Give the backbone structure.
Amino acid sequence: MATIGVLCLSNGGRYTSEDPDFAPGLVDPSRYKLTPLFRQIPGAWASNVVAGDPSCEIEYVKAAQALVREGANAITCDCGFTVRYQQAIAEAVPVPVSTSSLLLLPTLLANVTEKRKIAVITADSRCLDADILAMLGIDSPSRLIIEGLEGTDTYNYMWDEDGKIDPKKVLADIDAVVS
């Protein structure tokens, strides 16, 4: 039976919302028609994955291979900055791999005129750098409006290895960044 494999950060934080649309979050199997397979990546924390720690790549590759052996027919990740490991993971497994919604940026840019811009809201705008954009085939950030959650409660939560998050506060933080 087809199922998705999810590569997860080692952070142990959980959602605290009573809202059924959010709680308990991505790792809740009841959110899916088919039970996904989850694998925490040893040593992969928000703090080092967002910053681009190259030593995490092999752990992501090994975990993706394990998920495929367990029956995953596709691989995704719970942190958009794992896009740095996209190529290595994709080359290591025989199933589709989509590590990040950032992979959609080239398509989005191609679907609007060159006078238009695309907004990107990210965990840390300082880490969405030229290397990532180049990996995506984007030569210049001139058509991107990149905003990060730096300075928000959500940003602080992301670095806490066992934090609790209230999705309503996340949405409020995003609204504040967008405003």
